[in-house]
Amino acid sequence: MRFIRYSSSALLMLAFATGSAYAGLCEAPFMHEGGQTQLSGSGGMQLGADLTFSNVTKDGSDACEARVQGIATYGLAGLPPGKSSLDYWMAVKHGKASFERRDAQGGREPVEGKFDLRMLGLFAYGEPVTQAGQTFPPMRFQINLDKKAVQTQPIVVSTGQKTVGERQSIQTASGTQSCWPIRYTRVTDPTQASFNGLVLPIPGMTAEVTDWFCPDLHMVMKQESQQGGVASVVEVIKLR
Predict the structure, then answer these.
(1) What angle do CA 146, 148, 149 make, to 5 degrees?
(2) CA angle 28, 29, 34 (to 5 degrees)
(3) CA distance linking residue 14 with residue 41, whole number of Å
(4) Domain boundaries, the chain
(5) Which of 102, 178, 185, 222 is such that its CA lies 20 to 30 A from the CA of 171?
């Protein structure tokens, strides 16, 4: 998302949310032993991530586990950029992800934040994209951040009706692909967050979003958004 400085697990969730659409996270091309995906962002939302996947197990198309390691970088509209190392165990069931991390004794402890992977609409089409003019219903999601990193109220995200545009050829990290542009409005409710005792307001945000879903890859390979006249792009730049 595009709020202020998220915890590592929130950044990890966002990185996944920019990955796969109808296929779901467990069927994404990078979800295998030794898989890798790299994201890059520019404009108002400068998100980057370089992630590797190991210890992958699957129990169907919507249930899987993996250890995810890598680096995430992030910045937002004039705020200081940041970098975070990621090392999490992730479990996915029915479109929702839970995270664990290593504790001081070398075991695992749950990360308090839980995330609905459908929050950006990228995992929520519910049926194949088949034609221009096809629509998908509005949705509403809640994000609970890892409270060891930041104290905040849950963040509520709403997406309007999604409408499929005419299929077009675009350049992707996997070469030229014929992809569907899926357009909708995304609204985040205002809230506030506390960083080391400093309470900061997080304003409500409205963005016009286009997901570029490439069916041959079963992936949204690029997401473009416009918010307050500021353009942002987050796209997959490496996939294996």
Answers:
(1) 75
(2) 115
(3) 12
(4) 8-239
(5) 185
Are the CB atoms for 63 and 92 separated by under 8 Å?
yes
Q: Which CATH architecture has domain 8-239?
A: Beta Barrel (2.40)
Q: Is residue 208 a contact partner of residue 182, using CB atoms and an 8 Å limit?
A: no
Per-residue model confidence as pLDDT tens for the chain (240 residues):
333 334 445 555 555 555 554 446 787 888 899 999 888 888 876 777 888 999 999 998 778 999 989 887 766 554 556 677 778 888 888 767 778 888 888 888 887 655 555 544 444 455 688 999 999 889 887 766 555 545 566 778 888 999 999 999 999 999 999 999 999 998 888 877 666 667 777 778 899 999 998 888 878 889 899 988 889 898 889 999
The amino acid at 196: N
Tell me the C-alpha to C-alpha distance, in Å, between residue 125 and each of 29, 41, 135, 142.
Answer: 18, 23, 9, 18
Query: What is the spatial distance between Cα 162 and Cα 137, in angstroms, rounded to a whole number?
Result: 7
| 194: CB partners within 8 A, 6+ apart | 150, 151, 152, 200
